[in-house]
Amino acid sequence: MEEEKGEKGKAGKNNRPPSIKLPGKGDTHSAANTITCKAAVVYGPGQPLVIQDVLVDPPKKMEVRIRILYTSICHTDLGAWLGTNEAQRAYPRILGHEASGVVESVGEGVTELKAGDHAVPIFNGECGSCDYCKSDKTNLCEKYRVNPLKSVMVNDGKCRFRSKEGGKPIFHFLNTSTFSEYTVLDSACVVKIDPTAPLRQMALLSCCIATGVGAVCNTAKVQPGSTVAVFGLGAVGLAVVEGARSRGASKIIGVDVNPDKLTKGQTMGVTHFVNPKELEKPVHEVIREMTGGGVEYSFECAGNLDVVREAFLSTHDGWGLTVVLGVHATPAMLPLHPMELFDGRRIVGSVFGDFKGKSQLPRLAQDCMRGVARLDEFITHQLPFEKINEAFQLLVRGKSLRCLLHLSSPQLN
């Protein structure tokens, strides 16, 4: 039975930080030992995830082992599960990259984190010492940037997950692998957050909120009174809407083929809604008519090349900016003629909302606690971790934005 977000009593309780019992005397493991825990393992494209016991090795040099308390599913997990990009296929594998939890132990050399810290894993790491991390022109890291092809740890090229029966390696995913009660990450991919921030909500900062809000505030730098079009009203698209609302955009046009997105979009701040299936002309022509020539900013959040072109053409001649956020798994090229760029429209991609994760995400967490993004609005369903396959189907059917999975039941203060 799905647990809806609207259960105010439970939501209120979850706004208090959990008191976590960490390994100590009397426990069956310690920081120096391998942990046996439950994880959701995928063995092939589209196959049901298997909840099973796995072995999680101790963190090595500059690594961190985290106890995951909450995790959710996004379309990147869905695409990896379906195997839409053959280059990402590495099995067996533990998916998941949007989560929150508590540091259980740290490896040699880790000084900025300790056992008991509340933490958020990030797929786009920040070592803080490479030329990329030192530059204010990028949020990519030379060594720990997002890499969907990576399936092992940087330290030694090996896995920290093993099957309980036989000890065979189980591959990692997007620097994180959060579909497990415990996971090991490079310390560059772990962000310490305010212990008063509700971990239930902070899970969303790992991906959709940072990506969408950051695209508005960091990449596009949307100004008050601006006009915005958002193509695709999934969780990332609605995070863009939240960001545009918080920046004082005067017109926020939501574009989606799912009519059910109208009500949710309006709740989040969409001022106008366009369903391409109901139009007799291209979307960009309609948006140009609505805005007197086009919007100043458009955001592509659907991962569809035809949508990229419509988003690009919906912006205003001379100064329009399109930000691409959708994941495009195919090798197809951009559907743009080079001369179209000479009309003054620009197009740019944004990774993790251009946030430098470790140094800037803690501030975003504080901003969200002050209402910059209403995180509870994104959590449409809640289920126990064991029902992860049901959560995937909710996303497949377009019924959920974020289904939050509970990996444990910590005592509350």
TrEMBL record:
Positions of the UniProt region annotated as Disordered: 1-27
Keyword field: Metal-binding, NAD, Oxidoreductase, Zinc
Source organism superkingdom: Eukaryota
Ranges annotated as biased composition (Basic and acidic residues): 1-10
Alphabetical list of Gene3D superfamilies matching this protein: Medium-chain alcohol dehydrogenases, catalytic domain (3.90.180.10), NAD(P)-binding Rossmann-like Domain (3.40.50.720)
Keyword Oxidoreductase: yes
InterPro entries for this protein: ADH-like_C, ADH-like_N, ADH_Zn_CS, ER, GroES-like_sf, NAD(P)-bd_dom_sf
Ranges where the Enoyl reductase (ER) domain occurs: 46-401
Cofactor: Zn(2+)
SUPFAM superfamilies assigned to the protein according to its UniProt record, in alphabetical order: GroES-like, NAD(P)-binding Rossmann-fold domains
One Pfam entry name: ADH_zinc_N
Family designation: Belongs to the zinc-containing alcohol dehydrogenase family.
PANTHER family on file: ALCOHOL DEHYDROGENASE, ALCOHOL DEHYDROGENASE-LIKE 4
Protein name: Alcohol dehydrogenase-like 4 isoform X1
Lineage, opening ranks: Eukaryota, Viridiplantae, Streptophyta, Embryophyta, Tracheophyta
Gene: LOC113722413
